[in-house]
Amino acid sequence: MNSEIRDLQPKEVWNKFADLNAVPRPSKKEEQVIAFMLEFGKKLNLETFKDEVGNVIIKKPATAGMESRKAVVLQSHLDMVHQKNNDTTFDFSSQGIEMFVENGWVKAKGTTLGADNGLGVAAIMAVLESNNIAHPAIEALFTIDEETGMTGAQGLKGGVLNGEILLNLDTEEDDEIDIGCAGGVDVTATRKYQEEETPERVTAYKISVKGLQGGHSGMDIHRGLGNANKIMNRLLFDGFENFGLRIAAIDGGGLRNAIPRESEATIVVEEMHHDAFALEFNQLAAVIKKEYKTTEPSLSITAEVTETPSSVMGIGVQEGITRALYTAHNGVYAMSPDMEDLVQTSNNVARVKIGEGKIKILCLTRSSVESSKIDLANALRAAFELCGCEVKFSGEYPGWKPNPESPILKVLTDKYQTLFNETPDVVACHAGLECGILGQNYPEMDMISFGPTIKGAHSPDERAHIASVEKFWKFLKEILKDIPVKG
């Protein structure tokens, strides 16, 4: 399996990536990959240990002649987003990722690839295993649960690391150097409701929204991609307003950090409205598809007659929740006034699950400005509380404030210019990187982030650019050779 991946250049990185992707590692279920990394470090006879929350640290002494350089922390996260296409049968808890090569990219068969952040992990493993790469003392930090709470970074205590410089290998454009990122907060709305017996003389439909691209709810939020939950709610709201549509169940989206690609709903309408509803539905579906023809050319919206459900939502609860979902902001909320083209604040309406008397709605609100993050989170809370939901904030993590005067930034920009004869883009990103959290317990550590080009992260379209990985590997090795001496 994945033999063609192992033949790619640089082999030392792609082989480690293939080894890693053979190990199941979805967020919150990292036991197998933690054991894998501990065994890897111990086989190299390097100091290897796991901290109390599950992060793995492997320490390697400086190579000959590099002992006077500042110690470097190489950091990536072990977990991966587990998303798959509906027609793909795959168990992320027990199966390794199935990869293939296509037109200069490495992809996965119907699932996320795990290049985010598996290629960073693989590069660090390759450095640890090497006998011919010059480098200062290295502390390899492999964090857990980055994708669903950053609990690994949050749980890392001060004093565990001694490095003065941290290289985070979790950026997804090879011509960018990141010096800042957004913070985030999970917004969860829940409530219970009394179901009602389905009225007589109705026609039941299964409505499906699918074929959307999905993507990273931070890095891709500005692209105007379709959100399956918002599109579904638009359809249901219209059907309710015009034909008294009643909702039995909704199941849309998945993880908070993935723009939802699919949603399904079971609904009923009175038989007398059957033809009119079908006509109106198809007309609205055509309008929506036309709106998204550029960004979502594969969008599919269908309504098929199905078995009549035994119960539906109470009409008052249904009216409240559909209006709240319509009100709930999705997408870019504010752009940064300080950095050109940087999204400052956004929200992803990530998951809508309704049925059997329970409502659960999951959002992820991001911002590089703390006050703006809370402002938007409170707006969401107000919308859902007005329809009787209980709203909780959780999983909050800080942003990483840019430092344009960072000493390691100058090292990287100069090295990039020398190696590739062009100037890199120095940016802050709207994704959540662990640097801001790690900086709370290591405030004096000079941090920077870079990585190879990865597209479609957090979706089954995730793919890694092969030539970019070779470029990234060359860049990393040259940086390690040029780490400043201790002050």
From TrEMBL:
The keyword Phosphoprotein does not apply. The keyword Metal-binding applies. Its cofactor is Zn(2+); Co(2+). Signal peptide: none annotated. One of its GO terms (biological process) is proteolysis. Its EC number is 3.4.13.18. It is an enzyme of class 3 (hydrolase). GO terms for molecular function: metal ion binding; metallodipeptidase activity. SUPFAM superfamilies: Zn-dependent exopeptidases. Keywords: Cobalt, Hydrolase, Metal-binding, Metalloprotease, Protease, Zinc. InterPro entries: Peptidase_M20 (IPR002933), Peptidase_M20_dimer (IPR011650), Peptidase_M20C (IPR001160). Residues 208-294 form the Peptidase M20 dimerisation domain. It comes from the Bacteria. It holds the Pfam family Peptidase_M20. It catalyses: Hydrolysis of dipeptides, preferentially hydrophobic dipeptides including prolyl amino acids. Belongs to the peptidase M20C family. This is Cytosol non-specific dipeptidase.
